[in-house]
Amino acid sequence: MTNFTIASFNVKNLIGADKEYYQFQSYTPEEYAWKRDWLADQMVTLDADIVGFQEIFDEETLSDVITLADKYGEAQNEFSLPDGTKRYRKRAIFDKLAYGSYREAEIAFAPNMNDGEAGHRRPGVAILSRYGFVGEPEIIQDLGQPLDIPFSDGGEDGGFFRISRLSRPILKVRIPVGGRVITVFNCHLKSKLGEFLRPDDGDFAPEVDLTQYDPVGRALGSARAAMRRMAEAWVLRGAIVQELHAGNPVMVLGDFNDAGNAVSSEIISGEHPFKNYQWMLRHDAEHRGDRYSEADAKQIHEDIEAVRLHAAEKLFVRKSLRDMVFTAAFGGVYESIDQIYMSRHFLPEYADNIGEMEYFSVLNDHLTDGSHAEAPYNKLASDHGQIMAHMILKGDPS
Question: Which partner for 393 in 146, 217, 340, 355 could form a disulfide, CB atoms 3.0-4.6 Å apart?
Fold first, then answer.
């Protein structure tokens, strides 16, 4: 058996001091020192074997935080772990207190191809792995050929939605754990912030001028953001299904910018099958009794389940009878927009599983309602909770 932990951590705009990331936004040396210290503390608390990070502007700054986390973790070990001079040195509980170093860990970083000059930066994502990686990490952002999603309006041409690149990269890696290789995707989908079009002869989109509030225009901006987020989820879904069809166990984590029951999240996870398809008319029905057979229903159910993902949070809620998990707060709404999804390879009820989730952790005591711009920690700490799945794998398949 092999135990490992996998976490998702949106760090909120990680960049060094005196570097303008968005317009007029930067950290003073003192602010960066505070943020770096806070992030390192969270890293020590998580002590995860695999971490997917979002909102990383450069790899060097992330490495700086990880180095500080190791320093704090080693100091914690020196204080907490018993040796010959301390009592209770044979108590098994102390095994849980040990911090595992990242000194031998590897980082895969995916910069954002939309990144620009100071004041117009765009963050990327990264994955930290104590187990290293198999092969080279893959970055999904530039789609090459523009992707057109057609619409039909009553049989007539309804136009199309076009996407040629993702707002942020998706990072795909393969990680060796316990004699197996797990495909891990880290994503940060388009936010709910409205997407507004700047006119050719204007310095800004008219919808951003709140003194001339345009509710309909701002609603259209939200619609654009939602369409982009769902298109990005569909691109991710295609990459996931490709891995599942190859027989590879898959875990997907990151900032989905939507709750688990949102359409974009359901696109990523896949459809939930009906309990029975025998009552449904066939797609090519010729009469009212022309329904799917028992064999058809069994095949449909298996085809859907084979490529479906399952939320670690929901597996935890089902196991623990709790429903108080949240990773973000805004406008009085507390919800989970950060997720860890896994293929059925990790479901206890799946006959051919390779392991399962033992526990699920969320660090969210630092969260404040993000609708208040001056809320404590709002700038320097993360505005997301950190989530972690505690996994156990069966023995080496070889």
Answer: 355
